[in-house]
Amino acid sequence: MAAAVTGSFPGHAVRHQADIAKGLVISTFEWLGDLTIFCCRVVRSAFVPPYEWGEFIRQCDEVGSKSLPLVALAGGATGVVLSLQTRDSLIRFGAKSMLPMVIVYSLIKESGPVITGLVVSGRVAAGIGAELGSMKVTEQIDAMEASAVDPYKFLAATRVFACLLMLPLLTIAADFCGIFMGWVANTVAEPMSLRLFLESGFKDALFSDLIPPTLKTTFFGFIIGAVACFQGMHTRGGTEGVGRAATSSVMIASLFVILADVVLVRLILMIYG
Amino acid sequence: MAETSKESRDLPITVGDLHKSFGEQTVLNGINFQVERGETLAVLGRSGTGKSVLLKLLIGLRPADSGSIRIFGHEITSSDVKQLNEIRKKIGFLFQQAALYDSMTVEQNVAFPLSRHAALPENERKQRVRDLLAGVGMDGHLDKLPSQISGGMQKRVGLARALALEPEIVLFDEPTAGLDPITSTEIGKLILELKEKRKMTAIVVTHDISTAKLFSDRLLLLHEGNIRIEGTFDDLQKSQDELVAQFLGESS
Fold first, then answer.
1. Roughly how many angstroms between the first and final C-alpha of chain A, as a whole number?
2. What pLDDT does B5 receive?
3. Cβ neighbours of B93 in A, within 8 Å
4. Using CB atoms and an 8 Å cut-off, which of residues 107-136 of chain B contact chain A?
5. Helix (H, G, I), strand (E, B) or coil at A162
6. What is the pLDDT of residues B28-62, one digit of tens each?
7. B207, B251 in Cβ contact below 8 A?
8. Rounded to whole angstroms, how far apart are CA atoms A147 and B43?
9. Where are the alpha helices (DSSP H) in A107-193?
10. To probe the interface with A, which of B83, B85, B105 has the most A CB atoms within 10 Å?
């Protein structure tokens, strides 16, 4: 196509494509480099007094309490679906008694953390990207710097650490709702007491089954907060740029959460077997 | 920080051979000027001539390509964030769109720099915020969010915030842009009042010649990255330069 347009050899079109690919690779690495420098600056600023406790607590409320209904709903729905989907399969293999354990394990080890990560990516990353993007284009971030206040500390560090702290707590809420709704769905099909359901669900559970999968969400929280703050604080181009910052924050944060999950699951398996 | 002579330490603002480009576009092409203590300099020019960029360079919000910016003798271009923040505490900045923090009330906006840099007890800080807002006629709107007040009111609150730390220098970026003539005159008078009361050093970026005439001691016209003319309002009026005459004529 390019060759036809320029009226030159097909080789030129290939070279043109190669140049585009090269440019894309270089800009991706530049973006990753800038993101890494940004993360280092945010983490460093967070540990230098004075600390922004007020803003940190406000952000914990924004990320935590306001995401709770959505996370609880997503967790509950996952519990119901898991119960409905696995029940038939387990009955077919004569392992119906394993149902509580299947629900508990799948929720705690994988579904709960990943669903929480993705739901929070959607809600919080979009919010942070749009808010900081809007602050950037209306010069509010410049105004903060002009007042000798570090926006990396006040805006970014508070949001990143709020995400980091709130993600494990939201994951616990998602796990709880999922297990409870899994029990409800199971009880509708075949009555069973909650106590018996929990006892059989957690019967062989070990430390490595429960704690590491929940704690891995701190990494998800860091990724969501850092990516969204970075995209927001580097917004260019007016309201259109704000929209782009919000969308790209969600896309990149979700992608990184999924990639981080693969790496962290492998790591947890290597450590705990 | 670089060694400075006593003379340059006394001067609030000294700019030397300052260059700034964005890609291919040269915004400032080696400009030089000084601002004396207590003086108000108006920077005039058409849109896109780098007036706002110049103000942002002065407090290190954007890096200069080359040249020197000295605030009370401290070189801005080679200062780190910590040094810059010390200098920024001495400078107030009124942004073009006021740039009030959306999520904070009028009172919280003005209290923001005070709560971080002025070691005042809570009640004294509150009183100081009220005094600052009373000074700009906004003490009746403490609990309102920026979205609940008009553009002119936002400028007034922005002005109160810029003055919160009692700065020695105040930078005004288009203080009357987007306002009706009556509000523009009110803001102009407010700046004049502050200038007389506080004897502050100021740079006012504007293309509103009538407002500039009202409170500036000296004017400077930027054109294509260079200073086209610098002098008092009378000097500009006497100038034979066609562009200057055109600018004064069209603006007034």
1. 53
2. 57
3. 143, 146
4. 112-113, 116-117
5. helix
6. 999 999 999 989 999 998 888 889 999 999 999 99
7. yes
8. 22
9. 112-120, 126-137, 140-146, 151, 158-189
10. B85
Show the tokens assigned to A239: 């309201």
| Closest residue in chain B to residue A140, using alpha carbons only | B99
pLDDT in tens, A157-187: 999 999 999 999 999 999 999 999 999 999 9
Q: In what order do the strands lie in the sheet with B201-205?
A: B91-94, B169-173, B201-205, B40-45, B218-223, B226-231
Restricting to A residues 94-153, those with a Cβ less than 8 Å away from any Cβ of B are: 134-135, 138-140, 142-150
Helix axes A53-60 and A158-189, enclosed angle (nearest 10): 20
- pLDDT at residue B252 is higher than 80: no
Q: How confident is the model at residue A4 (pLDDT cuts 50, 70, 90)?
A: very low
pTM of the model as a whole: 0.87
Q: How far apart are CA B160 and CA A199, in angstroms?
A: 63
Work out the number of other CB atoms within 10 angstroms of the CB of residue B208: 22
How far apart CA A123 and CA A129 sit, in angstroms, is 10
As a residue count, chain B comes to 252
Question: What does the pLDDT look like over A114-123, one tens digit per residue?
Answer: 999 999 999 9
Mean pLDDT of A211-228: 95
Q: Where are the alpha helices (DSSP H) in chain A?
A: 2-6, 10-46, 53-60, 68-92, 99-106, 112-120, 126-137, 140-146, 151, 158-189, 194-201, 207-215, 217-233, 238-272
Has the ipTM of the complex gone over 0.85?
yes
Mean pLDDT to the nearest integer, A118-139: 96
Over residues B91-119, the pLDDT tens digits come to: 999 999 899 999 999 999 999 999 989 88
C-alpha B127/C-alpha A134 separation (Å) is 31
